[in-house]
Design brief:
Mean pLDDT: 93
Structural class: alpha/beta
Strand content: 15-25%
Radius of gyration: 15 Å
Shape: globular
CATH class: Alpha Beta
Number of helices: 6
Number of domains: 1
Strand order of the largest sheet: 5-4-1-2-3-6
Number of strands: 6
Largest sheet: 6 strands, mixed
Low-confidence stretches: none
Helix content: 40-55%
CATH topology: Nucleotidyltransferase, domain 5
CATH superfamily: Ribonuclease H-like superfamily/Ribonuclease H
């Protein structure tokens, strides 16, 4: 099945969490409409870290009912977060390519996007049959599906009742500290 994937991250202490929101292309138009409907008058995006707890509760409950699934990738962070991030990007790319995904969208980090691009190209070389796979980095104000990944990564990383709120859409948890 063709799917599109949207990636954002969260870091809490020594734990790096990357969430991949996966949706069927035919559902994207309605998903984006519903997500934009969650915006308050002034903001141009939903960034979970900027919300107060009552609003987070409302948003996480709505997001947990969307027709998406979210894969979680976790890795311990040492001094340099980039190596942990690239391990997550490599693993999620391999998983997406194996599933036949066609599009990957990552929240842009400006000049650091080049690290992701190199990792993704390397993963694609290991999957020569992935000719229809495309990826891009975009600003989260222009792609509302990134908000699903952002909210899920934040809630999952926070643990406790926050994690339980998004469990209905979490399809897998991949702990890269413990190889498969």
């Amino acid at each position: 099945m063709t799917v599109h994937a949207f990636v954002d991250e969260s870091r809490r202490g020594s734990q790096y969490t990357m969430a991949v929101a996966i949706a069927e292309p035919v559902k994207l138009r309605l998903l984006r409409r519903d997500l934009r409907g969650l915006l308050l008058p002034a903001p141009r995006e939903l960034h979970f870290n900027d919300q107060k707890d009552p609003r987070r509760r409302v948003l996480s409950d709505v997001i947990a009912r969307l027709p998406v699934r979210v894969a979680i990738y976790r890795r311990s962070v040492d001094r340099y977060v980039e190596s942990s991030r690239q391990e997550c990007v490599d693993r999620l790319c391999c998983d997406l390519l194996a599933q036949g995904a066609h599009r990957l969208v990552l929240d842009s980090r400006a000049q650091l996007d080049r690290h992701d691009a190199a990792t993704i190209r390397t993963a694609m070389l290991r999957h020569p049959d992935c000719k229809r796979f495309v990826y891009e980095h975009v600003d989260s104000t222009s792609e509302s599906m990134l908000w699903v990944a952002d909210a899920t990564a934040w809630c999952f990383g926070a643990g406790g009742h926050w994690r339980r709120r998004v469990e209905p859409i979490v399809s897998s948890v991949n702990d890269l500290d413990y190889p498969r």
